[in-house]
Write a structure and sequence with these properties.
The protein is an alpha/beta fold and 345 residues long. The chain is built from 13 helices and 14 strands. Strand 1, helix 2 and strand 2 form a beta-alpha-beta unit. GO terms for molecular function: polyamine binding.
Amino acid sequence: MRLFTTAAVIALAAPAYAADPELTVFDWAGFEVPGIFQGYIDQHGDSPTFAFYGDDDEAFQKLASGFKADIAHPCSQMVSKYRDAGLIEPWDTARIPEFEHIDKRFLESETFVDDEGVWYIPADWGVTAVAYNTENVTDEDVATLQVFNDPKFQGRTSLPDSSDDVWALAYLATGVTDWTEVTDEQFAAAAEWLRAAHQNVAAYWADPAEMSQLMGSGAVDVAWSWNDGVVYLRGDDYPVGFQREATEGSSTWFCGFINLKDGPGSEDKVYDFVNAWLAPGSAQALLDNIGYGQSNTKGMETISPEARSEAGIGPIDAPVLSQTPNDPAQREKQLAEFEKIKAGF
C-alpha cells in the first residue's frame, strides 16, 4: 500500500507521480503498481497521475480543504465523512461490469448503498495483526496481544500512526470484538491499555515501508502491522512472523473507491480505472505486491488457499474485530484520545 517515505507522503501540493493528465488518483502510496490496474495501461498507454497519502484522516482533510482529484481510495469507516461533507457522488454501477461479483459482505452498510445509489466500490481487504522478529521473539510471546505491554519489549515495539488500527488493537486486547456499540467503560479500559502500550513504543509508523524499515534495521521486534509490511520484509529475507491468532484475536478491514465531485479529469477514465482494478486478473498482482485480497469473488477464485494463508488472509481460529463503519462521533472521540496518548497525556 504505502511504499513512500513519510516526507513524500506528506508532500501533496502537487501529484507525486505524474502520468496520464486526464485522471488523478488520490491513493495510498504503493498502489501505483501497474499490475493492479494493467487493463487501464493497456487501454490508454499510460498509468494515471497519482497523488499519495499515508493516513485516511489526512486524505480527508486534504480533499475537504480543496485538493482536487478524480477518485480516492479510503477505507470503509471514512465513507460517511465524505458523504456528510458532500465531497462524493454515487457510482453508475451499470458502467462497472464486475460490480455484481463484489463480495456482498462488503456492501451491507447503508453508508455504501441506499435509495440514493451506490456510494462506495469496495476493492481490497486485509488484516492488522502482530508482525515479529522470529529470531528475537518466541511464539509464546505473541500468543497474546499483551506482548505490546510486556516489559521485556520496552522500546522495542511499533504501532501504526492510525487511530482506527490502534483502537482495534486496544479493544481486542481488552476483550471487545465489535466496535459498533462500545460503552464508556469499554472505551476507558481500551484507552488505559493503550496508554500502557505507548510506554513500549519506539516509534509510530506512518506507512508499511516505515514499519518494515524499523523492523529490518533492528530498531523494533514487534509491530501491529498490515499485510504489506510483512510482504516487504519477506522480500528482503527478513525473519518475520505474522500472528493473526493471538488469544484476543486480530482485525480485518477493507478499502475501496469513491467518486469525487467536480473532478478535474475524465469521468470515462475514472470508470476505466475502477474496471481495471476489479478485473479478476488483477487479483494476483494485488496479492503478490501488497498481500491484500480483492473484493471481486471471481478474482479471489484465482488465488489458491495456500497463497491466501501465506499472505495472511486465509481463515483463522481466533476472534476478529472487523473495522466496518462505526459511529462517527465515537471515531472522533477515539482520534482525539489517541492524539493525547501519543503526546504522553
